Amino acid sequence: MLDATKRETELSSQSIIAQGTKITGNVFCKNSSIKVEGEIEGKIEADGTVIVFDTGVVRGDIKAKQIVISGEVTGNTIVATERLEITAKGRVKGNITAPRISIAEGVFFEGTCSMQLPGASQPQSQPQPQSQQKSTPPSTPTSSTSQPQTKS
Question: How many domains does the chain have?
């Protein structure tokens, strides 16, 4: 399920959202991991691993090193910087991005799946600096001052 080398380090510092617990709002876990057995309505960001157990429900975006989903996740973006796994009981509605993705047979998944190379940055829609833009002239001439033509 998780990388064995990561398991010992990350398990020493965890936050647990127990079954029957509901959190409304964003959750940030610096230098730790989070186990979700209850419900979170809001964004989750963790430096470690986010594990959504089969009783867990997350309604919001998730960003973490590793994400393991056995419960229900509904969000716009679910991003793992190292690895994302959806187990056989997992249900995901949202767009997933990770360099390594594992989806078990029979999983409910609705959204897009994007694999990024480790260390690759997310594509951003920012204008290129003037020095990087191509200086090719437009293929059709344009004019900002045109007058309508009339037939006589």
Answer: 1
Is residue 89, in this structure, part of any structural domain at all? yes
pTM: 0.71
- Exposure b/e, 110-120, CB count within 10 A at least 16 = b: ebeeeebeeee
Tens of pLDDT along 45-57? 999 999 999 999 9
Phi, psi of 42 (to 5 degrees): 150, 175
Note down the domain range covering 50. 4-117
Q: What is the largest CA-CA distance in the chain?
A: 87
* 54: CB partners within 8 A, 6+ apart: 70, 71, 89
Q: Locate 18 and state its tokens.
A: 């127990």
